[in-house]
Write a structure and sequence with these properties.
alpha+beta; Arc Repressor Mutant, subunit A; Beta-Lactamase; 2 domains; six-stranded antiparallel β-sheet; two-stranded antiparallel sheet; 8 strands; elongated
């Protein structure tokens, strides 16, 4: 089995040029763990690369091991722990979603002639991660990386409709609002897409459908429309478009052909 000094660490010697920064030290250790080959990374070499004492590096690694971010090997080296592996899986999944959805979002914008967004749902958070903008002069722009509520807006309701009663209960909404929302979510499930009229942005409408992985909602596909451009039949027009796009993304993510 490899000893402590058998693996050459590839962590950055300093993060942002601040060797004495505790945060930079932790980032450099995480970088070394993420890049470690079989046999892990050793304390002595990490200390040399970072220009700090072995005890300081060992303390960081032990703390990471306690949090299951790192895993201590019998050799004295450290390898990625289950938490770091989970981060890698999630980031890889999100990158996969972005790559697979790009063409679908572009096609959706061509058909809808309005701006489309992709969200991901993980850890109880709904986050806007990608957009394909239309070329109309008036459109609503959502910040990439922004968090969206589950109980308001089409993007959130499309996901919430498939999360179960316990999630709605955790939102602790007033009873009248919760009752109204339950009825809205039931309609969302029945037709396959959510509708929002001025819920997050007063002068905007949204139409969204959830996409799934392993039978669970993983995010939503949304089209946003300025309210003055939303005709009476807007839901009939945009709803099926987002529903079809979300279904296509679900099929790509699960590597299953369309039914």
């Amino acid at each position: 089995m490899a000893g402590e000094d058998d693996t050459e660490p590839t962590a950055a010697a300093d993060a942002g040029g601040k060797k004495d920064s505790t945060t930079a030290r932790v980032v450099a250790v995480l970088d070394a763990l993420a890049r470690a080959e079989e046999g892990g990374v050793g304390v002595r070499q990490l200390a040399t690369v970072l220009g700090v004492s072995r005890s300081a590096v060992h303390r960081v690694l032990q703390n990471l091991a306690d949090l299951r971010v790192a895993n201590a090997l019998p050799s004295g080296n450290y390898e990625p722990g289950e938490v770091l592996a989970a981060w890698a899986t999630f980031l890889g999944y999100r990158q996969n979603v972005l790559e697979l959805s790009k063409g679908l979002l572009d096609r959706l914008v061509e058909r809808a002639e309005e701006t489309a967004y992709l969200t991901t749902f993980a850890g109880g958070r709904l986050t806007t991660v990608a957009a394909a903008e239309c070329d109309r002069p008036v459109r609503y722009v959502l910040p990439i990386g922004g968090r969206l509520p589950l109980e308001r807006g089409a993007a959130g309701k499309a996901v919430l409709a498939h999360l179960g009663e316990e999630v709605l209960t955790e939102l602790a909404l007033p009873e009248t609002e919760a009752t109204r929302l339950r009825a809205d979510l039931a309609e969302t499930r029945e037709r396959g897409y959510a509708v929002s009229i001025g819920e997050n942005i007063p002068d905007a409408c949204g139409f969204a459908a959830a996409y799934f992985t392993n039978g669970r909602p993983a995010g939503s596909i949304t089209v946003t429309v300025p309210r003055y451009r939303a005709a009476d039949d807007a839901a009939d027009r945009f709803g099926p478009l987002v529903k079809d796009t979300a279904r296509a993304l679900t099929n790509l993510l699960t590597a299953r052909p369309d039914d």
